[in-house]
Task: structure prediction
Amino acid sequence: MAEAVLEVEALHAGYGPAKVLFGVSLSLRRGEVAALMGRNGAGKSTTLKAIMGLLPPRGGRVRFAGQDITGLPPFRIARLGLGYVPEERRIFTDLTVYENLEVGRRAPAAGRAAWTPERLFTVFPNLAEMRGRRASAMSGGEQQMLTIARTLMGNPEAVLLDEPSEGLAPVIVEQMADAVLRMKEEGIAVLLSEQNLDFAAAVADRAYVIERGEIRFQGAMAALEADEQVREAYLTV
Amino acid sequence: MDFSFVVVQALSGLASASSLFVIASGLTLVFGVTRIVNFAHGSFYMLGAYIAVTVVPWLLEIDRSPWLFFVGVLVSAVAVGILGVVMEVLLLRRIYKVPELFQLLATFGVVLMVQDAVLKIWGPVDITGPRAPGLRHGVEILGQRFPAYELFLIFVGPAVLGLLWLLMHRTRFGILIRAATRDREMVGALGVNQALLFTGTLFLGAFLAGLGGALQIPRVSASAQMDLSIITEVFVVTVIGGMGSVTGAFLAAVLIGQLQAFGVLVFPKITLVLVFLLMAAVLVVKPWGLLGKPEAAAGRAALPEGILNPARFAAVEKGLLALSVTALLALPFFGSAYTMKVATEVLVFALAAFSLNFLVGNGGIVSFGHAAYFGLGAYAAGLLVVKAGVPMEPALVAAPVVAGLFAALFGFFVVRLSGIYLAMLTLAFAQIAYAVCFQWVEFTGGDNGVVGVWPSAWAASRHVYFYVVAVLVVAAILALRHVVYAPFGATLRAARDSEQRADAIGVDVRVHRWLGFTLAGAAAGLAGGLYAFSKGSIDPTMLGIPMSVDFLAMILLGGIQTVMGAVVGAAAFHAIKDVFMPLTDFWRFFLGASIIALVLIFPRGLGGAYAALRRQPGVVRA
Ligand SMILES: Nc1ncnc2c1ncn2[C@@H]1O[C@H](COP(=O)(O)OP(=O)(O)O)[C@@H](O)[C@H]1O
Ligand SMILES: [Mg+2]
Result:
């Protein structure tokens, strides 16, 4: 079994008086794709934000690449090689595609090949044609691709991907799955949150299921697909 | 008016526009990234001018070359840029997440501190700067002489605009600034150290202000009043252009430059009023300014915590209240005339502060120009007594009525806006009122104001007048307090909270806010009228920005989230000012430092501390 690049232990987090996470533990191994599944409001986004330091963890520990990153500011965590793609896309609408990529650019760790816009355009061919265009003029799917490309410009070792397939047309969802698999090929570990079981099954090796801020299932993706009881209880609406 | 005259007038308008733009671009950049409206931007401008009138003559001693003049200008701008860095590291960094009212107050604290520092270093006398070698002559334009330096300035604006464009689009720093203007948290999540970005932005912003100031030295002498006069103009430019938009600031500066150049021919006295009218008109049509965008969620509350479920007086507090009122009534029996004067002023300010907190704490309407209504009340009463020979009693009725009418007029526009734009508009209206009182010398006495505003004979003694004030102030405060608890007050609070959730403001809600604004203005006007008779005179400082800030400091000190805190805050603030002002030549410095300290370490004020003591859920948010 490959060593874990990201380890989350008994994470607690919330907003103001509202507690949302109650001791979430999970891990992500080097180069694997893991899915964090759960219904709307289960706590998926909150988990990813708390890992990234966008929401201060109220308890528990997060280790990344052997370092304790609990409570570090997001930019420090990003610099250690953990990328984050938010659910709401949050591209810089006033900037061109190229400029959006520039914001994400960081030098790679020693000995790794750097992502360049040109290399990214081989993964996201759509973006190539609109590199000089303002991001506000792009479709939702293109914007979603751009957020991922932007994060890859930081040459991360692992990426947190918040509901990549949400709200996308089926064709685009397929492209998205290809992109995730390409990231895996490049040796990037991906932790993605998902509600769409088909999408997760197409890309993920392992799965966690979260409900009301607690992990209710963990195991191989295939095991989740086979476990009707768990799916009924926590995934179908 | 012949053609050549029009051309020259337009050119001089462009020269002013250039200067204005250089300064405004810095403010708008800083706002775009940090979401802080930096009052101290005017101080940076002033420092630029003062440093330049020191450095440039020194350089010209070495050699009277045009190059050294501009080296001196740049050196001054860089020095100011470094001061901007100091301000970011020491202060701004600590207040990025606090409500914008607190940010405005804290940066105004810096304004006060810089004013005293400048007086200490450069003395109270205005300093005339050297003229630029090589640009001292006039140029013939269509038979009219036009100063070469002004012509040069005309090119500076577009040049700075061009350079800023290159910086923003062709450098990584610029691209990061533009990205952070939209979503700074996301920029951080991509690994950018925001602290460095913000520090760099402050350097750039302060540099531009300093550059604007240093470039002014051949045109205007450096004086300690430069900061507040420029900051209002620059606020107007950035608000009209759209906060955060550099190109918008350029457009607005050109517009205002021309308006002033030609407005001065038509209405020589009220060019300032024209400018503010333009601003009000633009904001009504385009609430985000010409090229502005709706404020993106910036990760902090727009408003400070307001009053929640206002606590009614408990038995103990009723006792305290009775005790205070008894003390008030008894005071004249042993107080000296001076004590009575101070006590009278405390009461007056208590009402002014209470009326402001009615707006801020209860309505979420952060007025930065509440002194306007205080001052208008004072002027209404004072002018009626002195110019029309009306006795005190009807004049005291007129004070709240006139102030209320103006509050209704201005408030009609104000309540359509929210957040920082609302604050800027209230400030602008206050400056209109200030400008009229200041510039309309024949009617208002201008800078000196009017003296001889004395109470009627029966109330002439300080002790009797104190009773007059006490009765009216207590009655007005209790009446306003009653409104806070009435359904009307609850509606205002609901409107405030729905505004925080950025819901659309419905018409009915808008009417409530408008009435609330009018009511608060009238109450402040009553306070102003009472103040005029206590001082025996009126003058424009009664409606100036520093007075508005004093009121804000009072409610901050008292605790915005409490109903009665403002009264305590006014008393404490006035007492502190009265005790410390005579002790030191640097009272502004200490006042500024105290305001900053208040924001940083004591944002809930005295009332908040008391409410926490009382530990009653619902008084203070947990
Ligand atoms: N900004 C917020 N403030 C308060 N509560 C929030 C906020 N964001 C999410 N929540 C609450 O936290 C819970 C988990 O939300 P989230 O992590 O976004 O779920 P998911 O991503 O699984 O749909 C939900 O009950 C949601 O209402
Ligand atoms: Mg989510």
The pocket of magnesium ion (ligand 2) is lined by residues A 44-45, 87, 163 (CB under 6 Å). Residues 4-234 of chain A form a domain with the Rossmann fold fold (CATH 3.40.50.300).
